[in-house]
């Protein structure tokens, strides 16, 4: 798939200019203490697949963490920032260039890894293509993109779309204890205690180390086919 209308940058931008483009007056990135890196978040209420799953008992979105806790306590500020990011991602012609400037800055690149969407998901195909372009322009970072936008990912792959080696698109099973087929590629699932798992599944160990990833980078590792996150 060709990256039409993706501006990878002809004119250099400084960090302040890049932040203004991508955040439109709000912070572009979210620091995540659990992961020890930065992330990018959008409003979970605007997820295409997730907004439907949230209404289905037993789905992984039925008790979405991004729709409670501090996300609600500080929703006025958080949702305004997320809305600005969404608008910039979808509409600004320099978003790819500006985001790559931010991610290549020492403040972000020193962590060597980056997570897309600690809240929210891929809005549309153009946004997926832009994210992939950013990954290509930031080779010093390992990118982890968890998503439930199965149709978008499938269409992109079927069209022959290129996925750089430093980007792991990890599709998430929609239901608790649900398992995506191997044909989905790298994936994840949420499990309850005692759930039966395929032999090629890695169980997340964050719950054993104070809900911290610490030195574990399994989510970013393309060699890890499937990750299971214990339900909590």
Summarize the structure.
By secondary structure, this protein is α/β, with parallel strands linked by helices. The chain has helices spanning 15-23, 50-53, 70-73, 75-91, 95-104, 106-109, 125-137, 150-158, and strands spanning 30-32, 37-40, 113-116, 142-147, 167-172, 187-191, 201-203, 226-230.
Description:
- The protein is an alpha/beta fold and 232 residues long.
- It has a domain at 15-171.
- The chain contains eight helices and eight strands.
- The protein has helices spanning 15-23, 50-53, 70-73, 75-91, 95-104, 106-109, 125-137, 150-158; strands spanning 30-32, 37-40, 113-116, 142-147, 167-172, 187-191, 201-203, 226-230.
- Strands 1-2-3-4-5-6-8-7 form an eight-stranded mixed sheet.
- Strand 4 (142-147), helix 8 and strand 5 (167-172) form a beta-alpha-beta unit.
- Helix 1 crosses helix 5.
- The longest helix is centred in the middle third of the chain and has 17 residues, at 75-91.
- It is globular.
- The N and C termini lie far apart (39 Å).
Rounded to an integer in angstroms, the radius of gyration calculated over CA atoms is 17 Å
Based on Cα principal axes, name the global outline. Answer: globular
Q: SS-based structural class? A: alpha/beta
Distance between the termini: 39 Å
Largest sheet: 8 strands, mixed
Strand content: 15-25%
Order of helices and strands: HEEHHHHHEHEHEEEE
Number of helices: 8
Mean pLDDT over the full residue set: 92
pLDDT below 50 for ≥5 consecutive residues: which ranges?
none
């Amino acid at each position: 798939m060709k990256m039409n209308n993706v501006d990878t940058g002809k004119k250099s931008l400084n960090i302040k200019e890049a932040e203004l483009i991508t955040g439109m007056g709000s912070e572009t990135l979210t620091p995540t203490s659990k992961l020890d890196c930065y992330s990018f978040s959008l409003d979970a209420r605007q997820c295409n697949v997730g907004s439907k799953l949230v209404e289905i008992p037993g789905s992984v979105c039925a008790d979405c963490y991004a729709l409670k806790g501090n996300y609600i306590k500080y929703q006025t500020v958080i949702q305004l920032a997320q809305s600005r990011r969404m608008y910039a991602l979808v509409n600004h012609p320099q978003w790819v260039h500006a985001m790559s400037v931010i991610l290549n800055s020492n403040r972000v690149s020193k962590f060597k890894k980056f997570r897309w969407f600690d809240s929210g998901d891929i809005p549309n195909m153009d946004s997926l293509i832009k994210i992939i372009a950013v990954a290509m322009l930031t080779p010093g970072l390992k990118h982890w993109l968890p998503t439930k936008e199965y149709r978008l990912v499938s269409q992109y792959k079927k069209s022959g779309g290129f996925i750089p080696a430093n980007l792991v698109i990890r599709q998430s099973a929609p239901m608790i204890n649900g398992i995506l087929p191997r044909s989905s590629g790298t994936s994840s699932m949420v499990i309850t205690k005692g759930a039966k798992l395929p032999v090629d599944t890695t169980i997340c160990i964050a719950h054993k180390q104070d809900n911290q990833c610490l030195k574990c980078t399994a989510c970013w590792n393309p060699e890890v086919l499937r990750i299971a996150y214990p339900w909590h």
